[in-house]
Structure formats: structure tokens, C-alpha cells
Amino acid sequence: MSSEVESKCRAAADAARELSNVSAAAKNIALNAMGEALLKSAKVILDANSVDISAADKKGMSKTLIDRLALDGKRIQSMAEGLSVVAKLPDPIGEVISEFKRPNGLKIKKIRVPLGVIGIIYEARPNVTVDSAALCLKAGNAVVLRGGSDAINSNIAIAKTISSGAYSAGIPEGSIQLIEDTRRETAEEFMRMRQYIDVLIPRGGAGLIKSIVENSRIPTIETGEGNCHAYVESTADLKMASDIVFNAKVSRPSVCNAIETLLVDEKIAAKFFPIILNRLEQAGVEIRGDKRTRDIYPAAKSATEQDWATEFLALIIAVKVVSGVDEAIEHINRYSTKHSETIVTGDKKAAEKFTSRIDSAAVYVNASTRFTDGGEFGFGAEIGISTQKLHARGPMGLNELTSYKYVVQGSGQVREK
Amino acid sequence: MSSEVESKCRAAADAARELSNVSAAAKNIALNAMGEALLKSAKVILDANSVDISAADKKGMSKTLIDRLALDGKRIQSMAEGLSVVAKLPDPIGEVISEFKRPNGLKIKKIRVPLGVIGIIYEARPNVTVDSAALCLKAGNAVVLRGGSDAINSNIAIAKTISSGAYSAGIPEGSIQLIEDTRRETAEEFMRMRQYIDVLIPRGGAGLIKSIVENSRIPTIETGEGNCHAYVESTADLKMASDIVFNAKVSRPSVCNAIETLLVDEKIAAKFFPIILNRLEQAGVEIRGDKRTRDIYPAAKSATEQDWATEFLALIIAVKVVSGVDEAIEHINRYSTKHSETIVTGDKKAAEKFTSRIDSAAVYVNASTRFTDGGEFGFGAEIGISTQKLHARGPMGLNELTSYKYVVQGSGQVREK
Fold it and tell me: ipTM score of the complex?
């Protein structure tokens, strides 16, 4: 007898073959039907959610985490609206990416197709269940979802609701699967389902991503770890620099596109530090500086080697004085997770050097790193931000959930050798 | 002290950062210099090769395998010519793939960049050392090569020659690395060098690919396993069908784009089998048929379940009668390795159904599967044929050895929430 994991993965693979040929119109109708189903089943979902919340309370889960887990009418409404946003996005499938004719008369078309089956492993936020399913479905992929145990009752109720909504609107049955057994062994089993799952996307913290990279036999896209940097170059407009650094650190410190380290050119450090470090401290940010920073700004704590490599995800910033753009680049390429970095500068040459030499998914000149986001890039939605270079880099929208195939039209051509 | 594997991978990663900014002109000069170095060191390389050949002889290696391993003046000449072909290809790096402006004024460019460091694991053919290094270098990537033990003396001589040639022409030292210790443990160590290697590409048989998929912690591109099919539909021009099937099976049976299974529509099987199966048998092909095939063509052996799933890479063909395009599609999607398939048909609707429903990298109408090849597709060269859907599918040329990054030009933009 096959396990829950295997039978659900296989069912998704069977459904994927049908789903890849479903029209854009049919997928959009289904997405809207899924949203309506969510609104109609709001009570069932909220009841299930309250079971999760009670269990979390009993376990002593922190307020912040409980807030991520909790649903209410407004959040369900917003999940339903998210579905209609995805319905309105252009369908990527069937696009002729390129087309060429060979001297022997073969006509080759490179056509965008779904990836097939996408596995998503995520933690406690139940809205991930909805938006992952929506994006995968829109790009013609079946999805197997494996959420964390803390949200399991909510996830079961949501998955049941949206999959019934989708199937009643004609989406092939089996296209949306949720693994209900949340023991660690089933996650590991899931990561080995290579014959059914085409790509695995973890949506969660560094620990989850590391475990998947270590254990997965399925091609994986690493997402979301962001040890991001701002470098304020000697010719920077210091008011602009202060606004960018402050925004990148303080506007939402718990997200991956917030900065963790500030590098400042030695020529302006004495002038810039009082402006920015006071402003950050007043906003509650803890400053951890290298020796030269502390010489200028003695209120700073001492930064350790470990601090340069840490994604704080909190109101903490590591600060270092550098001799110029070369040292800034060297520091960033050494410690960065290759997510997002920015230079604030008035010097075109320094900007060019920075953007060409920094090896990160998104490299900014005179703007906040906080813009690394599918919505802000105009992709309409995102399933995550890739920090690897294979397949997709940076914000991943619908196109990044697709592959392609070559369709070759001949008239009897054979190859000589 | 770090091992050979680790120190070479780290050196490649250091070199890769420099290499990513080397100009097209400098890379092309280096590729030509590598070719000249090969010709100049021909004697040293041939001497090293003869050591490998003697060892292979002593081991009792088969003639075919020794032929793959053996070098002579002509083969070295042809490796040098391959380098000058790669030098002439357009440089993919720096291409602006797309460019867009956001309502807030941010200008976003998606720019093609190298992947970084590419690991190649391969078997006995020493020419792979040259052409892998050339393609990786042209696309701005450092490369770490790990060839099989049978060719180790040849590989050391070749790698030394081409890397000296490249470095003397200004390529950053360390860009081309060969792991000289060919024990199994070092291969496994290599597959874990995730912090230095961005992608691992196996070039070899199914066994090698399976071992890498099982053991690698580095993103991998599966290449080259080809259980390919031809389906002759009821409206096919039987002369064309015979030529295509014969070409796809017989012209070079040991390669991945040769077919292994022939599916024939029941309406034409009685007419087509005598034509094609006699022709194949006369060329030395062993026919393994299902019951309906054997009823029409009693000389066929009996095909087993295993035969449908086998990449014979030899003059053997499995043959099955099917009821129409639906059964053909079902059979192929079940047994295929998703490499290349062809339909021979006069019916546009059948062709459309086949090309849209078959989930393989290259799907042909009225042409031989043997065209799935970087050169035949006009890519100028190829590093392998991907049978997975992540990152690259089908023939992989220079573009498939690249990633991209987003360069975002602002004027002080910050994000509201």
C-alpha cells in the first residue's frame, strides 16, 4: 500500500498532464470559483483556525507567530481578492518564446509549458496555502502542499475548500494536494518524490531551506534568505542615503529584503554617522559597529565576525567603515546571501563597478533594497525570491513557474550522421 | 588542511568573480590561445594518452571504449578547431534580456550574467575536458572538471595545456580546474561543494546521472538519457515514415537522440511492418514486438515490459501496435525519459495533439529525433541535452550556461510599507 505522500504526489502528477492543456479562460474561472468558495466556507475555515490557535496558545507560541497563524474575516476576504488578482494576470502558457527555421527546413518553436508538479514546503502562515495553489494553477502546474503542523487544521479546511472550488469549475481532480500528516518523516519522504515532483520550493526561514537543500532529491529553488547590504559611497547625497538606509532597515525589519549591514566610505563616515546612526537608534535599532565606526560613534556596540554573516530579521544593524567601492564589493560578495544590495552614490563609475561586480539577484543604485518583490517589480504576484542562480533569480512570478519545450515541424528530414 | 577537491573548488570560485567581468574579446583570444597550446603540446598529450590506453588494454577494456579514449593528431586538431568555433560564437554575457520602468521611476534591467562555477562530472572521453572548459569559459564561468580514472593521464595533460594557454592570454588563474584524484570518495566530496559550485552537470550514462541525483547537494542538470519514440500515425506517408524511423534508429544507435521504441497505428501496421521491419533487420536491428506486432511479423522476438522502459543504445528496437494517437501519447508519457519523440502523420490535428500532449524536451512532426542537438538547433555548440524541466530543457548551448541579475537604477526611491 502506498503512503499518503506517495499517493498524493502520484495523483498530482496524473492531474498535471491534463492541467497542462487547460485553457487560460478555464483556469481563470476556476481561480474565481476558488475565491467564492473561500468566502462561502469562511465559518468552517475560521473554526478550524481557532483549533490551531488554541493549540498554539497552549504550546506557549509567541504573539508574533500566533498573529501570523491567525485568520479572521478580513484575512479570508484578502485571500479571495488575491485569487481574483491572479485570475487577471496574463496566462504564461503557450507563449512562443522564440521561433527559428533551420537551413534544412525544420521549423523550431520554443514554447512555454508548465513545469509539471510543484512541491511547496512552508511553515505557519495559512495564506501561503491559497496563494501557492493559485500561482501554480495559473501557470498550469499541479501542486503538492506541505505546511507546518501549527496550521494544519486551517490548511486542511482551506485546501478542501479551494480544491472543491477548482474541481467544480472543471480543473482536473487531483491538481491541488495537501499532505495532512505533518510528521518530520513525511517531509523527508516528500523530498524524495522525484519521479512525481518537478521542483520543490521551500517558503520559510533559513532552517527550513537548509534542511531541504540537505535532504531533497528533487530540484529545489532556494528562496528568501536575505543578508542584504547598503553601501554609502563618498559622493552620496547624504539626505538620500539616510532615507534609503533608514527605509531599508526600519520599514519592515522581519522581511528578507531588509538590510542587515551598512557599509560607509571612510571619507564621509564622520559626517554621515551622526545623521543616520542617531536616526536608527531613535527608531530602536541596535547598532553594532567595527572599530572605526565606534571611534566615530562610541554609542555603538562591538560587531563580531558572526554579525557580518547574520540575517538579523530584527532591529539590529551591523556597520563598517570601508576604504571605497572595492572594499565594499569585496565585503558584500564575501558575506551576502546574494539577495539584494544597494549603493548610494553620485558617481556613475562607482555605480557601474558596483552593479557589475556584485553577485546578487538584485543590485540597486540610489534606491532601497525593499523593492525586491514580485509586486514591486510588476510581476503581479510572487511565489518567493530566489537566491540561487539556476532557473530563476530574484522575484519569482508566473513565468518562473514554467519551463519550455521545442516543437519541431518537418517534412521528412533525416540526419546524415 | 583542505583537500584537493575543496581547494580547487574554492580557487575556481575566487577566479569566477574576476572572470565574470572579462570582456568577450579577451575570452576569444584566450580560446584561440588554448587551441594553439593544444597543437603545440600534442606530443605531451599523446604520450599521456598512451599511458591511459596501455592501462585500459591491460584491464581488458572493450575496443569501443578504448576507441572513445584514444587520441591521435587528428583528434587533437579537431579539439583545437572546436575551440576556435566557440571563440566565434556570440558572447551571451551582458545581454539586456529585458528592461522596464516602474511607475515610481525605478528602471529595472534584467541582465545576462554567468552562472559562476560549473562542475562537470564525466567519463572516459578526454575531448569533453576541452569542450566543457571552452563553453564554460565563453559563458564567463569558471569550471571544475572531474573526469573518469581511465582518462586521467590524458585529462591532466590536456587541462594543464589549456589552462596555461588561457592564463597566459589573461584569463584569471584558477578559472579551469581538474580534480586529479579519481577515487569515488572525491567524487562524492565534489558533489557536496555547494558553497563553491553553482551547478553540476553530469555528462555520461544513466548510472552516473543517477548517482549524482542521489548524492549531489548542488543544483544539478540531468542530461542525456534518451528513451525516445517514433509514432507512425495512420495517415503517414509510409516512405517518409520508413526513412525517419530507419534514420532515428540506425544512423547512430549509441547516442541519446536515437529512438528505442516504434509505435504504429493499427490501421497501417499490416502494410507498414513489412516495409520498415525488413529494412531494420537487414541493417542488423533486433526487433522486439508486442503480440500484435508478432502476429503480423512473426520474425520479431517478444518484447517484455522492461523493454518499453529501456534505452538500448544499440541495434535493438521495441515495437508496439497502438489504437491511435491517444494510446501512443499515453505510452510515451509513461515510458519516455522526456528527451525526444516524433510523430509521422499527414493529419494536422493528430500532429497538434501529439505536440501539445507529449511532455518531452523536443517533439517532432515528420522529422527524425536525431536532430535534438545543439549544433543541429543552431546553437553552435552544446554541453549536453537536458531532460529535466528546471532551468534548461533540451539542447544546452551558451545561453543555458548563464543566469541573470536585476540592476535597478533609482533616484532615491524608498518603499512605503
Answer: 0.94
